[in-house]
């Protein structure tokens, strides 16, 4: 009976997944809080910092670039952190908590379609926010666009994958949406520090910078800086991102429960 039901649901799975994506998109657009923190706040932070005169002056300890130049990749990373740790986990955990995922198991809609839609939407929002930060930095503060565009895109896609995998792990470990918010917040601030929100990675003491660069957002900050300067991101930094994405994905798959 179960095999027959599964077989009968299989032809409808792609159509059901598209329907889930459309429904989740409508719900996502009705969440002004998530849209603000993921898509608006990082660029707003860049505008505020860039409006400070000292941030538009060249800094010797940053290799002659301005602080506003260094903070463009920081705001790019901030969007991925917001998306993966603050926006997505409460939604996914809330669906599990209310039994929505369990009820889906009896329909052509698979629970994995919901998780995939959430990761896709939040990933797209983070990438859109990154493009907005790059555009505003260029137009408002004359920040050069990345000179190694392909390398920049590769690093950005890898760190977005890492952020979403980390969010999936938070969702796996949290039994309720309140717990997901608490756990996400606890991880959020260390990740912000490693991304350079308070102090750019290149301005950190060497010992601290080496530790930070072993974390996904610290490695991503350096990879984005290298691509912005015209170099291909270092293989070590890209390797750190690939390794973290693989480890976090495996851990999330191991401990994730649909009900």
TrEMBL record:
Keyword annotations from UniProtKB, A to Z: Antibiotic resistance, Cell membrane, Membrane, Transmembrane, Transmembrane helix, Transport
Record localization: Cell membrane; Membrane
Alphabetical list of PROSITE patterns matching this protein: ABC_TM2
Domain of life: Bacteria
Transmembrane spans: 35-55, 70-92, 113-137, 149-170, 182-201, 236-256
Biological process according to GO: response to antibiotic
Residue ranges of domain ABC transmembrane type-2 in the record: 33-259
Entry keyword Transferase: no
GO CC annotation terms, alphabetical: ATP-binding cassette (ABC) transporter complex
InterPro entries the UniProt entry points to: ABC-2_transporter, ABC2_TM, ABC2_TM_bact-type, ABC_2_transport
Membrane-topology descriptor: Multi-pass membrane protein
Pfam families listed in its UniProt record: ABC2_membrane
GO molecular function, one term: ABC-type transporter activity
PANTHER family, sorted: DOXORUBICIN RESISTANCE ABC TRANSPORTER PERMEASE PROTEIN DRRC-RELATED (PTHR43027), TRANSPORT PERMEASE PROTEIN (PTHR43027:SF2)
Family recorded in the similarity comment: Belongs to the ABC-2 integral membrane protein family.
Protein name: Transport permease protein
Organism for this UniProt entry: Streptomyces aurantiacus JA 4570
Organism placement in taxonomy: Bacteria, Bacillati, Actinomycetota, Actinomycetes, Kitasatosporales
């Amino acid at each position: 009976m179960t095999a027959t039901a599964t077989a009968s649901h299989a032809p409808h799975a792609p159509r059901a997944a598209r329907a889930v994506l459309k429904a989740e998109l409508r719900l996502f657009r009705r969440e002004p809080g998530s849209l603000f923190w993921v898509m608006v706040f990082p660029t707003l932070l860049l505008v505020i910092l860039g409006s400070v005169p000292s941030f538009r002056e060249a800094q010797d300890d940053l290799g002659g670039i301005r602080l506003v130049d260094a903070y463009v990749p920081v705001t790019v990373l901030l969007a991925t952190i917001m998306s993966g740790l603050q926006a997505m986990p409460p939604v996914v955990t809330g669906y599990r908590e209310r039994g929505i995922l369990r009820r889906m198991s009896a329909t052509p809609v698979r629970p994995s379609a919901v998780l995939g839609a959430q990761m896709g939407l939040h990933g797209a929002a983070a990438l859109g926010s990154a493009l907005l930060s790059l555009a505003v930095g260029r137009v408002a503060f004359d920040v050069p666009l990345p000179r190694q565009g392909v390398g920049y895109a590769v690093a950005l896609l890898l760190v977005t994958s890492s952020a979403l995998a980390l969010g999936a792990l938070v969702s796996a470990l949290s039994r309720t949406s309140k717990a997901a918010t608490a756990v996400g917040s606890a991880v959020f601030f260390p990740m912000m520090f490693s991304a350079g929100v308070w102090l750019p990675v290149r301005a950190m003491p060497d010992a601290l910078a080496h530790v930070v660069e072993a974390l996904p957002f610290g490695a991503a900050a350096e990879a984005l800086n290298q691509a912005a300067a015209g170099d291909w991101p270092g293989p070590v930094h890209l390797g750190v991102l690939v390794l973290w994405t693989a480890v976090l994905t495996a851990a999330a798959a191991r401990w994730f429960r649909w009900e």
